[in-house]
């Protein structure tokens, strides 16, 4: 199934910026970065739980926001894109 | 239906920052801001087309990215949230 992962990480301090990098690094192992804080991941149920657990172990639940959208298996007609296609290098530091 | 709108706007210059504010201002008229660049909007087909046209008239297609995810009418079980719930004031300037 396609799982859309979106996040807002509070990057006011160095710890926040580190969390941001760690989250992106995890997500990129499982899917495609389509925007700065948006990943599309093709996951089965076990992978999804694993990724969720990893991300939850990284975020600061009082400062960061993490959302999962489950788009199912028939997702092709559920997505529309406009504008440029950004390409992000996951190994680069993410400064938002 | 629930439409998820996500965007990346190139804010390298003042024009970009203006586009970012304009996009947020449009989206907030139609739905709820759930993260910095993520809106959930309950729209019928006509509203969706209208909002899409408005947003497309704002973005710079060579610099910005705009994505729509159509989550349908049965969306309650398709969304999971973790961490803090941010509250954004749409009238505030958005500096990312």
UniProtKB/TrEMBL annotation, chains A, B:
Record keyword Metal-binding present: yes
One annotated GO molecular function: endonuclease activity
Keywords (A to Z) from UniProt: Antiviral defense, Endonuclease, Hydrolase, Magnesium, Metal-binding, Nuclease
Residue positions binding Mg(2+): 8
General function of this protein: CRISPR (clustered regularly interspaced short palindromic repeat), is an adaptive immune system that provides protection against mobile genetic elements (viruses, transposable elements and conjugative plasmids). CRISPR clusters contain sequences complementary to antecedent mobile elements and target invading nucleic acids. CRISPR clusters are transcribed and processed into CRISPR RNA (crRNA). Functions as a ssRNA-specific endoribonuclease. Involved in the integration of spacer DNA into the CRISPR cassette.
Family, similarity comment: Belongs to the CRISPR-associated endoribonuclease Cas2 protein family.
HAMAP family per record: Cas2 (MF_01471)
Subunit structure of this chain's protein: Homodimer, forms a heterotetramer with a Cas1 homodimer.
Protein name, entry field: CRISPR-associated endoribonuclease Cas2
Organism: Pseudoflavonifractor hominis
Classification lineage: Bacteria, Bacillati, Bacillota, Clostridia, Eubacteriales
